[in-house]
Design a protein that fits this description.
This protein has about 190 residues and is α/β, with parallel strands linked by helices. It has a single domain (about 1-194), classed as Maf protein. The protein has 5 helices and 7 strands, in the order βαβαββαβββαα. Strands 1, 2, 3, 4, 5, 6 and 7 form a 7-stranded mixed sheet that branches. Helix 4 crosses helix 5.
Length: about 190
């Protein structure tokens, strides 16, 4: 089975590849000669994931899955949420996003947050499929660790041992992460139709 993952983010590809079943050929956007920026204009994670996967299926004819992930911070009423990647501006710089978030949480007693990922699958069956993964945690006072990407240096999952995602190995992060949980739903579905 050949399946495209609609992302140009090499970190996401590295995270997802070991989670997929043997025999599945994972294609990147570059592998299918898709070099344009995928549309991401919806106001929900579900909407963005579906929009990206549908775009690849409609324009390239390759069954595709896409994800959208948001960091939802309680003290900020769920922000940055769907705008997580561009929280500090359209340049989408992780360091800027982290700095803005830490500035907005300065002095906040409630630092609870959750990462939420929605994966949309389009093109394998007549209907679109959605899978969601959530991991609760809290926002650290300062960045720690050199691994991961995005908000990983400041996100401490509840189920871990007090380390941020950026302090974990990829294998450790994949045991509990939001993206791994959403992809696990995708894998169960792929197994059931294969």
């Amino acid at each position: 089975m050949r399946l495209c993952f609609a992302s140009n983010n090499a970190h996401k590809l590295d995270e997802i590849r070991p989670l997929l079943p043997a025999g599945l050929v994972l294609l990147s956007l570059a592998d299918i000669n898709c070099h344009e920026e995928l549309p991401e204009t919806q106001d929900t994670l579900k909407g963005n994931a579906l929009q990206k996967a549908a775009y690849v299926w409609q324009h390239y004819g390759v069954p595709c899955f896409a994800d959208d992930t948001g960091l939802e911070v309680a003290a900020l009423h769920g922000a940055p949420g769907v705008y997580s990647a561009r929280y500090a501006g359209p340049q989408r710089r992780a360091d800027d996003n982290v700095a803005r978030l830490l500035k907005e949480l300065r002095g906040a007693a409630d630092r609870t947050a959750r990462f939420r990922t929605v994966v949309a699958l389009v093109g394998l069956t007549a209907t679109e499929q959605l899978f969601e993964g959530v991991v609760p945690g809290r926002i650290a006072e300062a960045p720690k660790g050199v691994g991961g990407f995005g908000y990983d240096p400041i996100f401490v999952p509840d189920e871990g041992d007090g380390r941020t995602f950026a302090e974990m190995t990829l294998a450790e992060k994949n045991q509990i992460s939001h993206r791994a949980r959403a992809v696990a739903g995708l894998v169960r579905h792929l197994t059931s139709i294969n």
